[in-house]
Every structure is written in structure tokens, then in C-alpha cells.
């Protein structure tokens, strides 16, 4: 493996670790506090869609970095959206 391909491979691990870690951190905060005040449903929905778009764009459908970094993060994004909506008062859900 050349230095260039090693660097590219290592660079692929950055989003595979950072994206789900950051998203998981936010989800954990919401789950522990049972409070989603200030959480933007639209923002997290768009993050989820963007992660799916990046997964398709990279065309690396079977690599762990793409699956975990993009699809795994998208799943966490959508869980944040669903739980945020669930925590809203019933009057604001409609």
C-alpha cells in the first residue's frame, strides 16, 4: 500500500468515527434529559438525508467506513428526529 492510499484509507476513518460519535453524543443527551428543547427537527432530518447522499456519492457501498459513517449516522439522525417529535407536547406535534 502506497503512502497516498494509506492516507486516503486513514482519512476515511475520520468521518466513520466522528459523525456517529457526535450524533450519538447528541442522542445520548436527549435520551438522558428527556428534553429536546432547542433541537431542530429539520436540521437533523437534513443531516440524515445528507448522510444517505454521501453514502451513495462515495460509491463504496460495502466498506465499513461508509456503512457505519454514513448510513449508521443517518439512522441516528432519524432517531433524533423521531424522539424529538415524540417529546414535543401533543399540541405542537400536529
Write up what this structure looks like.
The protein has one domain: Monooxygenase. Helix content is 82%, strand content 0%. The chain contains 4 helices and no strands. The N and C termini lie far apart (55 Å). The model has no long low-confidence stretch (mean pLDDT 92).
Gist?
It is built from 4 helices and no strands.
Q: How many domains make up the coordinates?
A: 1
Q: How far is it from the N-terminal to the C-terminal residue, by CA?
A: 55 Å
- Morphology call: elongated
Q: Enumerate how many helices there are, as a single number.
A: 4
CATH topology: Monooxygenase
List the uncertain runs.
none
**CATH hierarchy class name:** Mainly Alpha
Structural class: mainly alpha
Instruction: Indicate the CATH architecture.
Output: Up-down Bundle
Give the helix level as a range of percent: over 70%
Strand content: under 5%
Reported for the largest beta sheet, the result is:
none
* Residue-averaged pLDDT: 92
Rg, rounded, reads 16 Å
The SSE string, one letter per element, is: HHHH
Count of DSSP E strands?
0
How are the SSEs ordered, and which strands pair?
Elements: H1 3-33, H2 41-58, H3 64-87, H4 90-93
Helix pairs in contact: 1-3, 2-3
Key structural traits:
Monooxygenase, single chain, 4 helices, 94 residues, mainly alpha, elongated, 0% strand
Amino acid at each position: 500500500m502506497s503512502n497516498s492510499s494509506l492516507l486516503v484509507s486513514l482519512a476515511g476513518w475520520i468521518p466513520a468515527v466522528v459523525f456517529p460519535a457526535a450524533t450519538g453524543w447528541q442522542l445520548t443527551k436527549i435520551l438522558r434529559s428527556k428534553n429536546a428543547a432547542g433541537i431542530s427537527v429539520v436540521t437533523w432530518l437534513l443531516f440524515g438525508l445528507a448522510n444517505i447522499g454521501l453514502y451513495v456519492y462515495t460509491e463504496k457501498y460495502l466498506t465499513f467506513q461508509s456503512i457505519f459513517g454514513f448510513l449508521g449516522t443517518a439512522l441516528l439522525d432519524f432517531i433524533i428526529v423521531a424522539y424529538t417529535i415524540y417529546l414535543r407536547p401533543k399540541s405542537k406535534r400536529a
